[in-house]
Amino acid sequence: MPLVIMDKTLYFFFDIIPDGFVKSLSLLVNQHRKVKKERKMGSCPYCGLTHNVGLVSTRFAGTDGVSLEAAKWAGVFEKQGCRCYYFAGELNSPPACSYLVEEAHFHHPDILDINRNCFGVHKRERHITQKIYKYKEKLKDEIYKFIEKFKIELLVLENSLTIPLNLPLGIAITEVISETVMPAIAHHHDFFWERQQFLKNVVWEYLNMAFPPHLPSIQHVVINSSGDNQLSLRTGISATIIPNVMDFENPPPPVDDYASDVRQALGIEDDELLILQPTRVVKRKGIEHAIEIVHRLGMKAKLVISHASGDEGYDYEQRVKDYSEILNVNTVFVSDIIKERRGMTNTGEKIYALYDIYPHADLVTYPSNFEGFGNAFLEAVYFRKPIIVNKYSIYATDIQPKGFSVIEIDGYVTEDVVRRTREVLENPELSKKMVEKNYEIATRCYSYSVLEQKLKNLIFDSVACNPENITI
């Protein structure tokens, strides 16, 4: 009699098998099943052990895109049998898995001084070179201590080898990997050649060496096809494309009691539209377009800007305020009460998470001139809100072809854009049809399952399981 034993990856087909062999094979398969059942949740699916992963960046805190995506990646790592530890200059992770080094932050005074004397200038002074090497050695020692303390098996480098906000950190990481051949995944969000302020510099030798480095033990990940093309063209490095994602398999919960008063807290009247600009106040966000649209709509509305200026200065914020005043648009800056987590201000006001604000928005504006991907776009889709989006390059090449239904600006605001925006705001059925279509597309293309599928292969190409512990 033919015998077939099936256990997912095991298929044996025999015509004539001795009884003793059948019994031994059956015992082996049953043992394999028993081992799988006995493994703890969160252990490696291959060896049953837990692997230690070290995430390294300038900061893991706040609502910037790098921090948000790193948290999603950490969830996948833990699901695949890894334990995550964090190295940065600012951290909101539990102390037991954190390694804080102030000099790793781009806001550290000496790192800021290095940047001022390396970018936008014609000559690098010798004392700046000495300062770069001084902090490189300091950070390098700390990275070695981090690896030793937490017995790190894999480094995940979150934009720290991509954009040179902290030159000594990038050089230190590169040297550590070169000296240890430590397996690493470099997660690139936005390269220095994509930012105007980094193109005039006196540190080309460091940028070519470490942003990013071309080392055999590093696997590179980019978030869009343009990044993949440019990385390959400029450095010869091949990369895996893993887009930013949201948890579309699990829709957002309904508004709870805490967030029920958001409109009142933001000063939105009952007959007033809440138009949300869920970004930092930086030049490339093109916020003037949002102000112009609100002005030309001629509807009672308030433009709410959720984030502060961040690391790119405050001149543009003043420009946005002045432009709002010129066009008589009621624009409010609410970064003081919108943070990563709920809480209270020093004056006793409620602090809301950004996810508390989205459900109350009537429209989301995203008129960026450039984005590495577009987290705010996905967030608006996740909360089923109509979107105005400028056709920035990554949207045009990677997102638009998926078929999303949005109001598009092609570099400037037209009367047709204003008409379509007014139509969506005045026609709830049209708005619902658009947002439901967008949610369905995003579930297929930008959900957590997409991240898990793509990242799983990288993890187990990088982490070496002890052969003695591997069970088939």
Give structural attributes.
seven-stranded parallel β-sheet; globular; 472 residues; Rossmann fold; 18 strands
Walkthrough of the structure:
The protein is α/β, with parallel strands linked by helices. The chain has 2 domains: 52-245 and 450-466, Rossmann fold; 258-446, Glycogen Phosphorylase B (Rossmann fold, 3-Layer(aba) Sandwich). It is built from 16 helices and 18 strands. The protein has helices at 19-38, 65-79, 109-116, 126-150, 167-180, 204-210, 225-235, 262-265, 287-297, 315-326, 354-357, 375-382, 393-399, 415-426, 428-445, 448-462; strands at 3-7, 10-14, 51-56, 82-88, 98-100, 154-158, 184-188, 218-222, 239-241, 273-277, 301-305, 331-333, 338-339, 343-344, 350-353, 363-366, 387-390, 407-409. The strands form 4 sheets. Strands 5-4-3-6-7-8-9 form a 7-stranded parallel sheet, sandwiched between helices. It has a 6-stranded parallel sheet with strand order 12-11-10-16-17-18, sandwiched between helices. It has a 3-stranded mixed sheet with strand order 13-15-14. Helix 2 crosses helix 16 and helix 5 crosses helix 6. It starts with a strand and ends in a 10-residue tail after the last helix.
